[in-house]
Design a protein that fits this description.
Hypothetical Cytosolic Protein, Chain: A; 221 residues; binds zinc ion; 14% strand; four-stranded mixed β-sheet; 7 helices
Amino acid sequence: MAARGRTPSDGPSAARTRVRACAACQKPGEPDELVRWVLGPDGHVVPDLGARAFGRGAWLHPAPDCLRKAQSALSRSFRTQVLTSAEEAVQLLSEAAGVQVGRLLGQAKRQGLLSEGGTLTEEAYQEGRASAILVAADAGRATLKPWLERAIEAGRARIWGTKDELGRFWGRPEVAVLGILDQRLAKRVFGGIAMALLAPEQVSRGKRIETSDRGLATEDE
Ligand SMILES: [Zn+2]
């Protein structure tokens, strides 16, 4: 049997379909670990979080180390000079991710995959039905009961939005706690929140900022 022509990038996984690699670090990743970027006719790129947009696409990890190289890596992938800077790319990704989180929560509400309020959400969490919890940044100290603080420490609960914003997903003026009753959806929401909290300063050359407190910041409209 004749040997197939192989390029250096061919590996055992090269034959598998659906394997995508990050254009910056070259590491392969599952579709939900990478963000697809689409090249527009004007030379700028936009994030395609649904990975459904028409056009030429390339993939990047939504991580500062990879996004810092977005412009050169995507220029290489698209074989043309991409005009979007790393800072602009992060700004676009953060905005798109914020919109996507809202869309996912709206969808979750319609499908009955949300629980509202501390009591019902605690029940759902203790019974293993709530995969993730969102706590409004302006929720009072009374909301942050020990079980919820433990969930935050365990990475199962995140501070996100304001009571007004969470209330909008639920259809009530103010909501302090929302539980997400679906594991897959919870993973997507938390992934979206992590991207929404990215800041252009994180990819500015020669600058690294401490990001550990950003999760507590109130989301600006
Ligand atoms: Zn990467």
